[in-house]
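User: Structure tokens for this complex, please. No commentary.
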Amino acid sequence: MGTWSRFNIASIVLGFGFLYLPIVLLVIFSFNESKLVTVWAGFSTKWYTQLWHNQALLDAAWVTIRVALISATCATVLGTLAALALVRYTRFRGRMLFSGMVYAPLVMPEVITGLSLLLLFVAIGLDRGFWTITLAHITFTMCFVAVVVQSRLLSFDQSIEEAALDLGATPVRTFFAITLPVIAPAVFSGWVLAFTLSLDDLVISSFTTGPGATTLPMKIYSQVRLGVTPEINAICTILIGIVAIGVVVASIVTKQREAQRERDERAAFAQS
Amino acid sequence: MKSLGSIRRSFAPWADPASKPFISVKNVTKRFGDFTAVDDLSLDIYTREFFALLGASGCGKSTLLRMLAGFEQPTSGEIILDGQSLAGIPPYRRPVNMMFQSYALFPHMTVENNIAFGLKQDGMPKADIAARVAQMLKLVKLEKFSQRKPHQLSGGQRQRVALARSLAKRPKVLLLDEPLGALDKKLREETQFELMDLQQELGLTFVVVTHDQEEAMTMADRIAVMSHGKVIQVATPAEIYEAPNSRFVADFIGDVNIFEGAVGGADGGYVRLEGTNGFPIRMASPERPATGGKSAVAVRPEKIRVSRQPPAHAPVNAVQGEIWDIGYLGDMTVFHVRLKDGRVIKASSLNAVRAVEDPLGYDQEVWISFGEDAGVVLKD
Amino acid sequence: MTRVASALFSRLVIIIPYAWLLFFFLIPFFIVFRISLSQTAVAMPPYTPVFDLFGGLSGILEKAREFSFDNYVWLTEDVLYFNAYVSSVIIAAVSTVLTLLIAYPVAYGMAKAPKTIRPTLLMLVILPFWTSFLIRVYAWIAILKPEGLLNQFLMSINVIDQPLIILNTNWAIYIGIVYSYLPFMVLPIYSSLEKMDHTLTEAALDLGCTPFTAFWRVTFPLSLAGVVAGCLLVFIPAVGEFVIPDLLGGSETLMIGKTLWNEFNANRDWPVSSAVATILLLILVLPIVYFQNAQAKADSEGK
Ligand SMILES: Nc1ncnc2c1ncn2[C@@H]1O[C@H](COP(=O)(O)OP(=O)(O)OP(=O)(O)O)[C@@H](O)[C@H]1O
Ligand SMILES: [Mg+2]
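Assistant:
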């Protein structure tokens, strides 16, 4: 390993400082007594208690979570299938088009995706609202799931599937008994990614929504346009907290699992 | 009980015209795009035979095995198993099982569930499965490890799980793709004998792929030597070694010295060659190459004698040279003897006694010689 | 029976996601294009002619005669749109370069970090990605405002005595884009640097390169695939970015994503916004296709 020079350390510290400082400031000022976000006037949690009484906000949060749960689940199924199609079937008609359609949404500007989906929903006469947002989210998040699952499938030892076929399992059985359990962690990360992307989305939701379906980002956006308030900081802090707890728990669990695995492996070799 | 060796010696169904092959590979060709991996290949394998496919890397051994297992379809030709064509039968319907080179153990299942997997697919009753799994664990001596996951096992243990899993269904044929490839030398040699015992005990037909010739010689009843998708020779290990049918086989298996020459005629069961190395050769041969044509004789190093004095039959099958190099291997010594024309001949002699009083040294003038039945006349 | 099921299964694996993407991703583009040829109308939907899929071929042909390229002519006549396209591309390009300049040293430092802390660093780069985009952009408003935290800080240490005007300028947009897209640039560069054999650099040093030339002639070219992927991942979405110019940019900053949004939401002019989207897509088609090919190539190499 080359040396980890002072320059390397400095660039990491500065880079990470840049990434985290704004978020840290935002969290700090959510506990500000004053309504002015930029002047510290003492510690308070009043903005959090106020949130509890903001029914419109709670409704929006509930819509957002339902959209995210449904769309992440459907997107995971579709994205996993898409990844399988890309990795396992190297030759079928229109494969070029297919892989293009999987990769393009990863970089497609959201305004285009949003507008085009809206026009589709209008053209087929679908009432806009909860379900159109969900359909739109399925469409753009499934491609992220596909990419995550695909990279796992690429490193997958296919001979274990052949072994299952060889032992008499039909392809369908092989998929459910062998392939799916082995790629399950990647499928799960795909689900989590789809879930957070859906929670987060503003632009596509705004285009495809209809009366009565307001998501949390849309709510936050309309308030942000009116100015910065500690209340918004409080919502943001809660969302960040949820994500941070989730990530920390997940990483502790995987760390422990890996440590356990390493111990097992060492034990196995000590024995043989 | 008869010893393994005596059973083996009397086992030769391929020599019996009345016996029917269990597996028949008939003119099978497999192409990947415009690359031919297996080229018009035909083979017969008999029940209870331990059959080895031997050949250099990339010669199509795995491809042939995968066609037997059903993972690849032949481009043309036909494979017949027990009188039934395998064409169009998917892998999960074939009465053959395979042991994978990478073992392909299911990482999310315990040893026990790995072994039971195939039985569950057949819908075997639970009690029977448990009994069979226990029997298999005992067979491969892994009773204590039934609840472990594959990553909690050592390499040798994994290999035994893979073996137990592929044997659990009592397949008619077991295909093994480099089963011992991932083991170290010592474990490998032990396991070779375990595999042979197991095959005898269960009365199965084994087709094993390897590119380790020693392994093939040790284990197999017959060996097929492959090259570029074709079978060059199919014979018992002894025949392959002592009577290779071609220069390729002679060269591929063990060390060999090849003496070329023009055919000078034949008498009785012998062929005479005007050797190009400056001495005439007389060699026993069942066949008679045409007089005047080119031919060659292959002689193994251990069949070449090195001596200070010329042998009685000189100059036939004998020539002078000087010792160029000596390799002492413990159980034997290998001499490299340089002939007048610069060619280096390999000869080896067993060190049967502890020390020779006047050992041969570097640069000494010596005679190398061989008997009239020490080598084979090669056809090509 | 099971064989039929198996064959069906393998078909479905392809057909289901394929059909979904065709219907929800590809076909909508054709609809966008078609509507960009229509006229605005006070109705719902607010354009004419409205296609009636059940009107039969003759009906469609009849309606098709009403199509025109008027909206595109309109786009070329109004210099506002042209400027918006140009400034979007320029802002995206400048931001991409800035992101690269910041991301590369970070990725390089991460790749050189001790193996034990690399997973933690990697997680720290990915973590902001999980938090809301909107929140991260919002956080900058409080920092960049004239009376915001940055100015307070700079004034307290006497670097400046007059607040800097950053919010509602292009600088705020650059900061916003760099900040939001930094992980997208760091990750591909890091992964290409991380799997690189570090003995290559040693070999170059051994052959007489200075550390800098070794970096420039060996390390950098080998990380180019990651650099290209990162730049595309930043540039393409940044061209059509809406949230960042809307929240951080000024009223005089033109970006096409914002223009499209306004055309659609404020003016309710669906045909013109469709035309805007169509042209934006045409501008981005080349980089997108390039991105897809790079991605597909990386995948087949991963195999
Ligand atoms: N699916 C495939 N597509 C294209 N070519 C293939 C495929 N499978 C095998 N080949 C080619 O066929 C040839 C024979 O391969 P095979 O795996 O049978 O070799 P092998 O004799 O088993 O070699 P080794 O001893 O290295 O395992 C090789 O040149 C290989 O590149
Ligand atoms: Mg092989």
